[in-house]
Design brief:
Blueprint lengths: L1 H37 L2 H4 L6 E4 L14 H13 L2 E5 L6 H16 L6 E6 L3 E2 L8 E5 L3 H14 L4 E8 L13 H16 L8 E7 L13 H9 L3 E4 L2 H7 L15 H30 L5 E7 L18 H18 L3 E4 L33 H5 L7 E2 L2 E2 L8 H5 L8
Parallel strand pairs: 1-2, 1-10, 2-3, 3-6, 6-7, 7-8, 8-9, 9-10
Antiparallel strand pairs: 4-5, 11-12
Helix pairs in contact: 3-4, 6-7, 9-10
């Protein structure tokens, strides 16, 4: 009889403990879900534990072929393995933006510890953009309103994922001749979104910005420093600026060309020195924007919304041009920009995760097709070879391909593609 009582006590104890374990586990899951919703852009931006990356998942030479939910999940797992937790998109008028958000939500449902947030891009154009008719840069496209509406719908549908809306991408810089608009257009839509926050039609914690070239934010030509730009700087929650030393190796090449004092260096030493100067060039552009923004809105945060380095080009940046394009230089820039932005406590959306061959459909060797840290078939470029060695991508695949190193990991083969800057 004593034995039976002891057994009943044991059974009751197990049941009680199981009950409390179930409650505790449930509360942890709820807490995790709650934390996702409570974590804001203010918590994420500048946080070294939340690395940022630009993402487009297109595998083919057209955006009319959207990546499947499963394909996007593969990409998300690869990026998550790199400690990427904030990704940037560029528009909502293609199927991919919605698919991406759905894929993130499904992964969270499958794994309560999976964490990924989105800076959702809303594309802005001028009237007649991308048509045979001359663009009218003083009038905006009729479609902009729909783009903003869709961005709002997605932000409200996935508030635990969408933490930032960016109004326009390089939409104010004058060299974007096919589509740029005046700052007043960006200001109009930023104010519209801020008003929706005030009336509880958008989350008050959602941050609004515009992601544009350093010059557009007053960090270069003073002609950009207008009253509308000042009002825009005051209206956004933070400034998202772009810096591209890579493109400046052709258009603003003074920092890039080989100085006489380096003529006696080995070729690899010349390249290393040039990449130090490229990093300093990016830092200078950031400082110029930061200094100007401070004159308008002293406490306004400034983060890097885009920077990158192409690994291949047959054009202005190839071996017949500035000789800037190869995986070695891309790898040096990726590591140096990550180190610097972590040091000063800002976010950097590196451009980009995977090569996208639709960007220059007519020329598969064009630089725009080769900004990815991974090739289209999932090979890790030189910047990420150390992560392959660390088995960071073990068991992960892209379209059935395991994550392996480019050049089969042979650095001698890689270095044969590397050329020092011109004299």
């Amino acid at each position: 009889m004593v034995l039976m009582k002891s057994r009943y006590k044991h059974i009751i104890l197990v049941v009680v403990l199981s009950f409390f374990y179930a409650i505790n586990t449930s509360s942890q899951t709820i807490s995790s879900s709650t934390n996702y919703k409570q974590l804001t852009a203010k918590d994420i931006l500048g946080n070294p534990n939340y690395l940022a990356l630009c993402y487009g998942g297109y595998r083919t030479d057209t955006r009319e072929v959207a990546s499947s939910i499963q394909q996007i999940k593969e990409d998300l797992k690869i990026m998550s393995a790199m400690n990427i937790k904030l990704i940037r998109t560029y528009n909502v008028h293609f199927e991919e933006a919605g698919n991406l958000l759905k894929a993130i939500k499904e992964l969270r449902n499958e794994d309560a510890n999976f964490e990924m947030y989105v800076m959702l891009g809303a594309w802005i154009d001028c009237k007649n953009a991308w048509t045979d008719t001359k663009p009218d840069h003083d009038i905006e496209s009729e479609r902009n309103e729909k783009e903003i509406e869709t961005a709002v719908e997605l932000a409200n549908k996935y508030p635990e994922i969408v933490k930032i809306i960016a109004v326009g991408n390089e939409a104010m810089v004058k060299w974007a001749e096919n589509y740029y608009v005046q700052p007043s257009v960006i200001l109009k839509w930023v104010n519209h979104l801020q008003d929706l926050k005030k009336t509880n039609k958008l989350s008050k914690d959602l941050w609004i910005t515009s992601s544009d070239d350093f010059a557009s934010w007053g960090g270069g030509d003073k002609s950009y420093q207008t009253k509308d730009l000042e009002d825009l700087i005051k209206a956004v929650d933070y400034v998202s600026m772009h810096t591209y030393p890579y493109h400046s190796t052709h258009y603003n090449s003074k920092f890039w060309k080989l100085p006489i004092s380096e003529n006696s260096l080995l070729d690899v030493e010349k390249v290393n020195a040039a990449m130090v100067r490229a990093q300093e060039f990016a830092e200078m552009q950031y400082k110029n924007v930061k200094d100007y923004v401070a004159t308008v809105s002293p406490n306004k945060p400034v983060h890097i919304g885009e920077t990158g380095w192409a690994s291949s080009s047959d054009g202005l940046y190839g071996n017949q041009g500035s000789k800037a394009s190869d995986e070695y230089k891309q790898g040096l820039y990726y590591k140096s920009i990550r180190k610097w932005t972590a040091k000063i406590g800002i976010s950097c959306f590196f451009f980009e995760a995977f090569d996208e061959i639709w960007k220059d459909k007519a020329n598969d060797k064009g630089s725009e097709n080769h900004f990815g840290l991974f090739t289209v078939d999932g090979k890790a470029k030189y910047a990420l070879w150390n992560l392959v060695d660390a088995e960071t991508f073990k068991k992960l695949k892209r379209d059935g391909n395991t994550i392996e190193k480019t050049f089969s990991g042979n650095e001698d083969l890689l270095m044969k593609t590397v050329f020092s800057p011109p004299n």
